[in-house]
Amino acid sequence: MAIDAENTCFNNMGGFGSFTIPTPQQDCYMGSGFGIQDDLGFFPRMGILQDTLASSSSSSSMCSVYLPLDIVQSLSCELERQRMEMDWYLQMENQRMTSCVFVEQRRQREIIMQKYESNLKSLILHKDQQVAAARNRAKELRNSLQIAEMESKAWQKEVTEKEATLSYLRNKLKAAEAQQLETASSSASSFLESQQKKQEESCKLCNTRSLCCVFLPCRHLCCCNECEGLLGHCPVCGTVKEASLEVFLA
Q1: Starting from the edge strand earliest in sequence, which strands make up the sheet with 213-216, in order?
Q2: Cβ neighbours of 143 (radius 10 Å)
Q3: Cα angle at 240 between 234 and 243, to 5 degrees?
Q4: pLDDT tens, residue by residue, 169-202
Q5: What is the pLDDT of residues 115-168, one digit of tens each?
Q6: Whether 36 contacts 28, CB under 8 Å
């Protein structure tokens, strides 16, 4: 009767042979029964295991009336061992999930840091290109300024040379004008002198022919041979002509 009660109790509990619990050295992702194969199926199986353990405890309490004391103690020890193993698996899974979360967070941080580093490198490269372009532009402006200063000096030198040439030409023009004025003055005075001399040497009546007759008694050379017969007195002093004398000037 005790053996029949024991078998009945084991059959009611489903038997502990169906609870295949791997040892800590076995892979918790590859086993069957209560082995953990993925993150999503682990917790439903844990619930099933807890329900089974609860039902086993109730069946044990029901069968404790019919079982001997040593069998009840062995069943209690087995249940306690299974609870300890489940606690150990829960701790291992917690540690694994914590490690996975930590690794994933570190990977995400590394991705973000790589992204920020890439953006920062691109920004630094762009700024370096802008600085290089600004330096080249400043260099071009300095070269342009130097060229402009050289051209300005060349223009100033050319202006100075032109001003010197203009001043020289003005002085030369003034000298030429003064010389021309002096020449004109001398020419005018010579012309006047020649005209005056010609007038002095021409007939006092016709002013065209040369003097060749001298009136007496005043002895002025005052008219030409053609006009001598027309004059009765001297045209220079007004003395009455008494006689005339023709002379030849060499």
Answers
A1: 221-223, 213-216, 243-246
A2: 10
A3: 85
A4: 999 999 888 888 888 877 777 777 777 777 777 8
A5: 999 999 999 999 999 999 999 999 999 999 999 999 999 999 999 999 999 999
A6: yes
